[in-house]
Amino acid sequence: MFAHPFRANARALFALLCWACFSGICLRAEERSPAPSRSLEEIKQHGASHSKYREPSTRPTETLAPQADLQTFRDVIVPILEESCLDCHGPGNVEGNIQIDTLDPNLLEGDDVDWWVEVLAVLNNGEMPPPDELEMDDEDRRTVVEWLSGEIQVASTFRRATSGHSSFRRLTRYETNHALQDLLGLPYEFAKDLPPEAHSDDGFQNSSEMLHMSVKHLETYRELARQALDRAIVLDEQPAPIHWSISMEQNSQVDRHQQQSKLDQLAEKLKDDPEKQKQEVDALRETFQQVPRDTHYRNLTTGQKVAATWAYNGARYAMDSEDAPRVMPPTSDLVAVLPGGRNQKLIVELGDQVPDQGVMRVRVRASWLREHDTSNDELHPPSLQLDFGWRASNEGRADMRVSIADQQVTASPDEPQIYEWDVPLGDIYPRNSVRGASKMGAMPSPSEYIRFVNSSVSKEAIQIDHVEVVAPVNDQWPPASHQRIFFASEQRDDERQYAQEILTSFMRRAWRRPPSEAEVQRKLELFTAIRGQCESMEEATSEVLASILSSPNFLYVVRETQTESPNSDSAIDRLTPHELATRLALFLWCSVPDDELLELADNGRLTSADELKAQIDRMLADPKAERFSQQFVHQWLDLQLLDFLNGAETKPKLSPSLKEAMQREPIAFFHEMLQQDESVLHFIHADFAMVNERLAQHYGIPHVHGNHFRRVALPSDPRRGGLLTQAGLLAMNSDGTNSHPLKRGVWLLESILNDPPPPPPPAVPEIDLADPEIAKMTLIERMEDHRNHPACMSCHSKIDPWGIAFENYDAVGRWRNAINGKPVDATATLFNQQELSGVEGLKRYLLEDRQDQFVRAMVHKLATFALGRPLTFADHSSVDQITAKVRQQDDGLATMIQQLVASDLFQSK
User: Fold this and answer.
1) pLDDT tens, 519-568?
2) Nearest Cα to 833, choosing from 36, 133, 142?
3) By the 8 A CB rule, do 180 and 506 touch?
């Protein structure tokens, strides 16, 4: 429901009203239950067929002079409420501190509109009547629901037209980062030093309620802008790159020397007994032919092998750099072999010469070493990951993954290929702090290294014979980021004119609108004032650009000042074209508008319905739309709970790679649905999943190989498919060692149904684990015992059944049929006596009876994110209108975004 000041109290009190007063629901739960023979896909269709949003509205939602329908309330609604409610909530008995006959029925102007919204919600959701009360007549119930729906719709439209909204806020940390990336044309993480954002009550980080600006913020933003421009603009000569060309013969010198020393020492020891010397030396040589379990070096001609080792002290493994590049030599007989299946690693130490800034290019010649039966169809290429690290002492070390995506190694040993990564050195944190303060070979060690990791799930090995590193890499000079700002111009010989041209262009892109002449002149005056203190025109310009990026016009989502509104005859205060472009870009790209959006805003074409639709299609097809999937899903589903989960403390333990796959799955699933315009009902259940090999193994899905995510068809099995049964979401709502029905139930109500439960009342008794009788209970039994306390019953009766439906999933989201030898009981009964038989029963119920609620919840969540502010009652009718259009067009996710952006809600201030 909508956020408002006393939502929690209203929800809590009205839950008691529901329990005690109303005597029926429109259709009995058992009458609505689908036939067991229906598949979940069939239930989706059946549930959609009785959607209220697919029916025409019974009352117009727009009128010039709306009036509250108080006559119908007095003549029709009051008698129904008097018969059903006043015994418990009338003058003589005010249960739950609510007296229903005192609620103001004038929803247009009265103060009790939030209570009436709650009444309608519980009526529609079937959260009453209590099982021991008489049923309300179906016709009476329908009458109340229709009257309330119509009044709420009209009142919401009226209040939206007569009340203001504020989306005034600063950019979030991630929006600032992406805006700088797009403005400067660089992929760096510019905003990593900004503090993390708080989450609003709705769960979003971009809410105007939270995004205030402090003096500390302003100082940080100024420094951030300065650092970003320093990385984009070059003021000095091109830095000379440093090169490393490293064969595995070089990289293995220490290990091969140690191996030879063993032979020499044994020969020396037995020099007086030649026969025994030969026997034992040959035996030792024979051990060198055995294949080590871990990373090792191998001579392809002799078959001799030596384990790859590394130690930080003494810098014995460090490779020397060179000033000039060398042509990579032909393939060598000496190679490094990284076995698969256990994240085997190969360290190549680079010393203390790696630059602080710029791009480091790493190239490795590698191949897929098939050491198993090549006729086996189950063999699949391994994957290679790149890390960067250092170890200064026993107490100081760091290892960081620097490859965004793993490289799948498909080349054969006969024809190895070059695999390459470009690594922004300025984004690696922390770097070895003793570089330049400690000499190579001394302690603490100033050296740094790269590390190749066979990140495959399978046991397929990777063979490496040569590594090249160069830093910093500049494929052109000045770099493209510099030329993006200091572009070619006929005014280049006139510094002031050229500066004006640069500043005007940059301000337009950074401030998301054409700057005024006065604004440009002020920046030009600043340029003139500091030019004499700077060695070059570029340096002076860079200082002015920093002021543009630390201006409120960049940092805030600002509203344009208009002396005369072009829509003055309309009740809706519409966004200007440039404001619309900004809102659209922040929504779908989490960034600033590109040149095409700005140009359409400049000429007024962006407000055209056809052009706006075309731009949404273009933006969703752009790779930058992945930012939207990442940010919206992370905030909507509260994935920070999964980020904070310590995989080493779960039972069983989660490997870092499995946890990473769990974090990626809901985002990949959402993005696939977005790209294909799949029905949002697939979030409840889908016949496909987005998985990689590690996650597929966790789920028991066969024939999935490799670390990349891909769409995989699922059998007709409710245990997987959709969001509800994804392992990461289940794991983050466990206690780490066991399931947690309460957490899972609360999460489903808040994130999926947008129907958060009331907070616990004060003085709720805690579960006493010191009591031996309680300690030996199962988790479900403890919850039942806890729920028997009167203070706990009202909340838990609403929450627990939803969470108990997930009991077949353990703490890390694996399916189970028994707990400690006892069969799992995942059956629960909802507040309205609807029985949920495990996760299949939960999915069936949601798809049959809660489709409207879920689709509306999705619209509500997307709108909250898109507008950057909490929704209020004034937005209620708009959300309903968008939901109706989405439902009438088969619930596509991209369709939902199209309808949201086309709405007055999105296009107004």
Assistant:
1) 999 999 999 999 999 999 999 999 999 999 999 999 999 776 654 444 44
2) 133
3) no
Lowest mean pLDDT among 74-78, 462-466, 530-534, 899-903: 74-78
In terms of pLDDT, which residue wins out, 57 or 32? Answer: 57
625-675 pLDDT tens trace? 999 999 999 999 999 999 999 999 999 999 999 999 999 999 999 999 999
Number of H helices, E strands in the chain: 35, 22
Q: How crowded is the C-beta side of 397, counted as CA atoms within 13 Å?
A: 9
Write down how long the chain is.
Answer: 909
d(CA 10, CA 31): 30
Say whether pLDDT at 60 is over 60: no
pLDDT of residue 850 exceeding 90, the answer is yes
Q: For residue 173, how many other CB atoms are within 10 A of its CB?
A: 19
Q: Note whether 401 and 364 are within 8 A (CB).
A: no
DSSP reduced 3-state for 372 = coil
Q: How many CB atoms lie within 10 A of CB 138?
A: 13
Detail the DSSP E strand segments found in 537-628: 556-557
Rounded distance between C-alpha atoms, residue 63 and residue 68, angstroms: 12
Report the C-alpha gap between 657 and 640 in whole angstroms: 17
The model's pLDDT over 694-713, given as tens digits with 9 standing for 90+, comes to 999 999 999 999 999 999 99
Q: Please, which contacts does 213-219 make with residues 24 or more away whose CB atoms are closer than 8 Å?
A: 213/170, 213/555, 213/556, 217/170, 218/550
Return the structure tokens found at 105: 């029925």
CB atoms within 10 A of CB 844: 24
Residue of 821, 819, 796 whose CA lies nearest to 808: 819
**What's the CA gap between 697 and 458, in Å, rounded?**
11
Contacts of 833 (CB under 8 A, 6+ apart): 29, 131
The torsion angles phi and psi of 159, rounded to 5 degrees, stand at -70, -30
CA–CA separation, 641 vs 728, rounded Å? Answer: 10
* Residue 558 near residue 540, CB atoms below 8 Å: no
pTM of the predicted structure, to 2 decimals: 0.86
Higher-confidence residue of 50 and 388: namely 388
Tell me, what's the pLDDT at 218?
A: 81
Token pair of 507 as six digits: 């301000």
Instruction: Please tell me the predicted confidence (pLDDT) of residue 549.
Output: 96
Q: Which two structure tokens, joined as six digits, stand for 32?
A: 């609505």
Average pLDDT over residues 311-316: 94
Where would I find the H helices in 836-909?
838-849, 851-867, 876-888, 893-902, 904-907
Does the structure show a pLDDT above 80 at 281?
yes
Side chain identity at residue 635, one-letter code: Q
At position 593, the amino acid (one-letter code) is P
**Distant-in-sequence, close-in-space partners of 561: CB < 8 Å, separation ≥ 6:** none
Closest C-alpha to 402, from 391, 390, 416, 417? 390
> What is the full DSSP assignment across 660-687?
HHHHHHHHHHHHHHHHHT-BGGGGT--S
Residue 761 CA to residue 790 CA, distance in Å, equals: 11
Encoded tokens for 377: 């169809």
Closest among 461, 457, 462, 407 to 703, alpha carbons compared: 457
